[in-house]
Amino acid sequence: MFKSVLLSTLRLRLLVLGGLFLALLLLLAGGSAYVQSRSALREVQARSLEALAARLAADVDDRVRTRQVLLEQAAANLQLAPEQFEQQGSELIARFRYLKGMFNSVLLYDRKGNVIADYPGLPGRLGLNVADQDYFRATRDSLRPQVSEPVPMSGGLKRTVIVFTAPVFSAEGQLAGVLGGSLELYSPEFFGELKNIAIGQGGFLTIHSVRSQLAILHADAGDSMPVATAEPLLQRALGGAAGQAAVGDSHGVPALQVYQRLRNVPWLLGVVLPLHEVMQPARVLGGHYLLLLLVALLLSLPLAWWGMRRLLRPLGRLQNQLTVLQRDPYATTVALGCSELQRIAHEVAAASRRRADCEQQLAARDALFSTLNEVSPMGVLVVDAQARLQSLNPASMRVAGLPAAEIGNWLGRHWLDEIHPDSLPQVAGQWQQLLATGSGFELLCRLRHRDGCRVMVELRFSELATSGGERRFLGLVSDVSAREEARGHLQAERERSLLLLGSISDAVVLTNRMDEVEYANPPALALFGVPASDLLGRLLGVFMNLVSPETGLAVPLRDIERDAAGKTLALDLLSRDMRVQPVLLTLSVMAGSGALQGYKVVVLRDDGERQQRMQQQRWEASHDVLTGLRNRRGFLAALGEVLDDNRVHYQPHVLAMIDLDHFKAVNDSAGQQGGDLLLQDVARIMQQQVRSSDIVARLGGDEFAILLCHCELEVAERMLRELLQAIDAHIVYLGERAFRISASIGVTMIQPQDERAQPVLSRADDGCYQAKQRGRNCLVLHAGKL
């Protein structure tokens, strides 16, 4: 009941919805501000704790380092033999009384770990052996100063000390003893001030030993030394991860913790602050936000009520206006004070007027439909679900060769009776599908004709929309006999054309104005490697990728159509399996004003044999036939490309000229055939010794050259020396004789100022000549031997 009264009017509904929206908006704004405040407060407290931990760690580091340095300097001033150190212990301890300001006690240990002197003296400490203590063993074994773990004092004293030690050496560098200083954990000299530092109300400072995980300083330590708890943050800090503040669990209470490693001693300093203290200002701020939200909501409700009443006042006026329009649809609407409601009133009045106008127009349209049905050249049928004719026009009778005067005799008959027996099964199947699914159909079929002639019609059937009565269907019949006869002649002509195109060995492709494939003969399908079903109707550019043989750049069909239509072009066809097929292409564009205007005919002829012949000629022009290496012409072309490259100014290139030693003797003894075999072996050795990116050439006779691209001089020297060794170790067996040769190599670096090939070749050739003069089988850079 309360719900129905509360939401009975639009005004109350809008008020409730507005109040809920305002409350949600204020809650979201306050919640977002509260969350941001908590996050910002936590970040500020974290940075504050990190800074405090860093300062305290630096202070403890300074205190430890000060005592270490002071103890090391005191030990360094003693250079006594072990016997003297043990004998003069009581005298030496007096010299170190000044250390009392830094330590609670100063002690001297002999090499065996016995206390031989202490200041101030404590009963029972002289003669005490500490050899089993870790700090003494570490000092004795490493001969370095040490800081001990917390050590309980002997003699029943409930105190814990930390011992600083420094080794004392003799003049010969032998360990004479150990100087130590003990410091109580909570003495005012060291930790007393740290223990009294206040961190919030419940926060505290901790210092743990990393090695033993003992608590050197802790709020709960008292006089004992508790082991580090299993707190995850503390354990990770002891493992090496320290320096940033994070939230962890301290004695079951969430707390913000930060741990800092000390530099001079393996200790870990931590600062812990309970999380409820960190978030206390945020909770206070949240209470203020909530109070502000309630006040704002209470103040906004009366204002919203007044606004709703004022905004909805035009609704009453609209009710009165609708009552007037119901009595008189042509009455003039009065101003309602609201443009939206005014449009509603105008629409209601216009709808009333349109309804009256529609009733007047329906009669006129019925008369017009009857007239169109009579004079239409297309046959129109209306049948019921039993295929009985309910209505048909004169054009339907003329298509079947029947007089229009007999229309009345055909009403009530089955329209399927006029379908020719050849087409009846197909038409009857479509009719049954229409009855089952309600989806219309369209097909070509043959009708019976009174004169017996062949009549082809285009038949369309669809279901008429009804308001729940008997199902009715509309049929449209068009005589297409002449069109089908022309289409048959055109199909026969097309088949003859396809037969002619199929007999041509060249690939022929016909495309429309959009470059979509309309036809492709069998050679074209074989060339593209796709079936006709995948090619027809798709863009030719998807299957025919043309590139220029000279530049390797793609050649679009649009460019060929624009610049070279009707011309024969030598191009490379890139197939779908990335094979390159040289072809001769001719593209023709159909002119005129017919249906095929703008269609294109592309003829492709295999040009692989001619391209292979030209490629062989180009190869022979730049390569040596005997060795397969580049000849002088090819090598000079490659060297010219390197010199023309701007990168030669900052990338090193090396040129080597190689002349075979004693080759003439082999050629004279074994003949030209033996010399040719030797040259082939040398060419193979050179190709094996250099990189695949380097260029090897035979310039003529027994003269070779190597261009080492992007190669440092040190790398080139190593490769060429290995080449010298490989040639010198190679033995050629010709008949019953064995021959060995060597090589002389001249090397030069290509300089940034080199612009022509001849100066570079001259420098390398001069180095090769010097190698000959120096006894052959060596390598020379310019005029100096490497």
TrEMBL record:
Pfam families: dCache_1, GGDEF, PAS_4, PAS_9
InterPro entries, per the entry: Biofilm_reg_signaling, dCache_1, GGDEF_dom, Nucleotide_cyclase, PAS, PAS-assoc_C, PAS-like_dom_sf, PAS_4
Places the protein is found: Cell membrane
Membrane topology per record: Multi-pass membrane protein
Segments traversing the membrane: 289-308
Enzyme nomenclature, EC number: 2.7.7.65
Protein name: Diguanylate cyclase
The organism of origin for this protein: Vogesella indigofera (Pseudomonas indigofera)
